[in-house]
Amino acid sequence: MEEIVKKRKLVCLSVFFYLLVSTDPLPVAQELAQLYAPRSPMSQLPERYHVTKENPEPPKLYFAFPHLNKALYKYAEEYDLTRYIRCDPKVPSPATLFSVAGHLSKHVDYGLNVAFPFLNTADCTSIIVLYDNYTMNNKQLIEEDEEDVIEMVQEALGYDKLVRPKWYFDVHDPWQPGDEEDDEDTNQVGPFLFIVSTRR
Question: In the chain, at which end, N or C, are there fewer CB atoms within 10 A of the end residue's CB?
């Protein structure tokens, strides 16, 4: 039994790693996207997810850019940041994402991190985080300065101006379809039909 569990974990890790380094889109069933729509990325943070005295432990959400594989790996190559997996020197390692985030942080003079979104509805497999709903009170800049950081990241990565940060639920969010929660957010961006985005 333990051997079966180990094999299942290995398969899951293999699939997840493939998604991290793949530049090909992976379609997601329409039914799955609809079921998990309440966990789709959002353009604005609803009040019920703000951390307050009355609501001290809401679900964690990241205000972040989607990790668009081709753009990030191109940036990594330009600045010699690419790290490769040991068994195949042609395949970039996920560690490359953290190298890019660190380099970008220095470039824009603002601390950026890497995190992983709720994969059932996200438009990417990893994200470049500015802050989350637990740290926004300390890390969120005034609107003008935040917009400067966003524009610098867009320019550095070659992102289209339409590719902007959104609010992503955390990959470890325990929510499941059927859980009670108001999901009628007018600012919701999803549901998405692709986990991996190759847009530039």
Answer: N
Number of domains in the chain: 1
**pLDDT digit of tens for each residue in the chain (200 aa)?**
455 434 434 434 444 444 455 544 445 567 777 888 899 999 999 999 999 999 999 999 999 999 887 888 889 999 999 888 877 777 788 889 999 999 999 999 999 999 999 988 888 889 999 999 999 999 999 999 999 999 999 999 999 999 999 999 999 999 988 886 655 554 555 544 333 333 33
Angle formed at CA 120 by CA 137 and CA 199, multiple of 5 degrees? 80
User: Is residue 163, in this structure, part of any structural domain at all?
Assistant: yes
Distance of CA 90 to the CA centre of its chain: 24
- 115-135 burial, b at 16+ Cβ within 10 Å, e below that, comes to bbbbbbbbbbbbbbbbbbbeb
Q: Establish if 122 belongs to a structural domain.
A: yes
Q: Which residue has the tokens 């790290």?
A: 83
Are 92 and 82 contacting, i.e. CB atoms less than 8 angstroms apart? Answer: yes
Joined tokens for residue 48 = 């019920």
Considering the domain boundaries, does residue 179 fall inside one? no
For residue 97 the two structure tokens come to 């994402």
Residue 151: domain span: 2-169
